[in-house]
Write a structure and sequence with these properties.
homodimer; 273 residues; alpha/beta; Rossmann fold; 9 helices; globular; PRTase-like (chains A, B); DNA binding (chains A, B); transcription regulation (chains A, B)
């Protein structure tokens, strides 16, 4: 097979299989060529990926050696994306009763969701995450986007125990905004004991929901390695109970009466400055 | 820029931007090259995509002309995937009380979910779908996977009205399995009148839930162009009320007492034979 064809096949393969360890003989067969040609192809692809801020190819030598595509996004591209999102969200018509923000159009756009996933996955790339955990419903697409770049499964915590999932562990927690006692459930067979977990959600006020997830996950002896939320909002009535998190967007000044809103970049960018 | 580098950049771009119409000058700038070079690159990529069963590049000429990547998956690859899924699901330990099947591990795997999305999107490719609609919770990842290949947004019907979404339309429907009256809600601003809709869900028994979605969507004057379900199951007590759907998997013989199950390929493959 000619180099030009090989480069298309290999690039497509890496895009569809992030973080998958591949031994070179697999590519030698796939492309009907020699090991040294594949090796040169990988150099070209690695170089372009790096130049374009798309990540890199991680190569290992020796027995069982091979190559793995680690997707990343450059800080420059992340900042640019966050800035566009910030402008988009800073629109008074998005204010909803109760001090919420209408974000369903953003969360309903697979392309934007995928970019958000890429940004979080890039930040959490070296944390040896085993599984991404979210709570139904709105965080689900974000969780899948993050997981697809980390090449790990998603586990969904539910607020209603469904009969279809077998035996489960549940906890009660106090919701920050409504002050009500709520329930969270996770089927027993859905999460291995001692997993390294990344929690993803769309929105965080005081952090009651995420704190509930942390409690539930401790029942599975999970290690919460990272917490990513798309948007955080100050809750004047309550102090934040979750502190170690990464947010892309921060809503600081939501004024229901005067229909005004201020949207800033989240701590994602602060952390690296 | 050299051809080898251009091919990596262009392939990556098409993978990340399915169905996006791009005029050639964009690529000329991106790759710092000439229009005729880009044109040759596109020939190479189109050719590899077709040979590998990944879809094709749709090119239009004249003013405003350009190129668009239409992702598809070959029938051969689809059949192979469905056969593997069928074997995986035909496992008696998956049987849950109530005649349900444990599929959370499949639905929690972003790679598998993406493949399922690619298969449905490929089948529904020419239907001019404007939006993918699903109902919370389990169908959500599948809906996003389908939508990402069709380059359209996702709208999620909820069973509980959430305060955070503004005014909404709701309907009551009778659930096939529980015979209970249930509610479905869709925020008014989430769906444009007269949209071409593709309904996606994970599981269908008698079809009460999907029928409920159809009723709700008729309130928005939507045109239901396609219905895709991952798995359908016979419900002995009830006749199916939804008939025009596409399923990948069919569960025919779920025997709770003897812990036996039979899983067949769905009508996806029948339709083309």
């Amino acid at each position: 097979m000619k180099r030009s064809n090989r480069l298309v096949i290999l690039t497509e393969f890496f895009m569809e299989n992030p973080r998958k360890h591949i031994q070179l003989p697999f590519f030698v067969d796939l492309c009907e060529t020699t090991k040294s040609s594949i090796s040169e192809d990988l150099d070209i692809i690695d170089n372009v990926f790096k130049t374009q801020g798309l990540g890199y190819l991680e190569r290992t030598t020796g027995a069982g050696g091979g190559v793995k595509y680690i997707p990343e996004i450059s800080l420059e591209k992340s900042s640019q994306f966050i800035e566009e999102l910030r402008k988009e969200l800073q629109d008074a018509s998005r204010i909803l009763p109760g001090g919420y923000l209408y974000m369903s159009d953003i969360l309903g756009n697979p392309k934007l969701v995928r970019e958000i996933g890429r940004i979080f996955a890039s930040r959490f790339s070296k944390l040896d995450i085993d599984v991404v955990v979210t709570v139904a419903t709105k965080g689900i697409p974000l969780a899948y986007a993050v997981a697809s770049f980390l090449e790990v499964p998603v586990v969904i915590v539910r607020r209603d125990p469904k009969v279809t999932e077998g035996s489960s562990v549940s906890i009660n927690y106090v919701s920050g905004s409504s002050r009500k006692i709520q329930t969270m459930v996770l089927p027993k067979r859905s999460l291995k004991e001692g997993s390294n977990v990344c929690i993803i959600d769309d929105f965080m006020k005081a952090g009651g929901t995420i704190n509930g997830m942390i409690s539930l996950l401790s029942e599975f002896n999970a290690h919460v390695k990272a917490i990513g939320v798309l948007a955080e909002a100050d809750d004047e009535e309550e102090e934040r109970i979750v502190t170690n998190y990464t947010s892309l967007i921060k809503i600081t000044d939501l004024d229901l009466i005067h229909k005004k809103i201020e949207v800033l970049a989240g701590n994602f960018l602060e952390d690296v400055l």
